[in-house]
Amino acid sequence: MAKFTVVLTGDIHPSPKAALQAVAEVLVCPATDPDGLSAAVADADALLVRHLLPADILEHGPKIRIMARHGVGLDFIPVAEATKKNVIVTNAPGSNTQAVAEHVIGTMLLLARRFGTLDAAVRSGNWAFRNSFSGMELSGRTLGVLGLGKIGLSVAKACAAAFNMRVLGHDPFLSSFPDAVTPATVEQIFSQSDIVTLHVPLTETTREMVDAAMLARMKPGALLINACRGEVVNERDLVAALRSGPLAGAALDVFPEEPLPKEHPYCKIENVILTPHSAALTEESMIRMGGMAADDIVRVLNGERPHHFVNPEVWPAFAARHGIPCS
To answer: Percent of the chain having pLDDT more than 90?
Structure first.
């Protein structure tokens, strides 16, 4: 019988899953609503997180030693509560950088060249659509990058090098900027950019920071890409900006409510590309995210410090509680 129980809030790639199964019983949550998650963790020693956890999850999982994020963002985990209870939290920094950056650049091209509209025209027999069509070249255009973590920087550098784009960047936590990026205020990002891409964490400061006032600053014909968190954008204001200007289009991978309801106004707007929170879902990224999370879970269950500690201040109390030499 397995000594430990590891609960996955969503299934993971078979390779890291096998690593967990070698040391523990591995269970996948059958339901990811708050009640389903709470019921699933009653006997869990470790939790691998792919869905938003209820704030009181640790009240339902008193044995949990570690909550490992399958990805980077920590808004799915009640980190403060975990720290208070000396529960280890980890994430997988850099694991999805390439996947999300490629997704952002791909949707940028889809919007700029309107490939979806062109495809639909051909399929409907409207070849003559080409006579009234014109797309946007990226070369020489201005890209605004809001948030210059690993993903934002990757997008910025790639667009400057591959497309000769002028790149404006804003990040209050960055002390120096690479040569490819010109520092700018948030207001300058929105007023000067032809394309704005969002790469900020969800905090009380960033929640709905992209609102009617900010969208009104954008150039006529500008494009918006959001592959960070849906709550960063005020949905009602974005719908209005897409319907009546100034925006020419948007690519959205994340939403405040997921799955996106099929009756949502976005679904009726032609100039929006919608994807199901899938920017990070490549084979390579899934192996990295699952592998880093699984490795830290195995380490903690074996009495070792994790590699990607989010709250290292809990280690002394955690080690004392579980009889681990604190080094």
So the answer is: 97
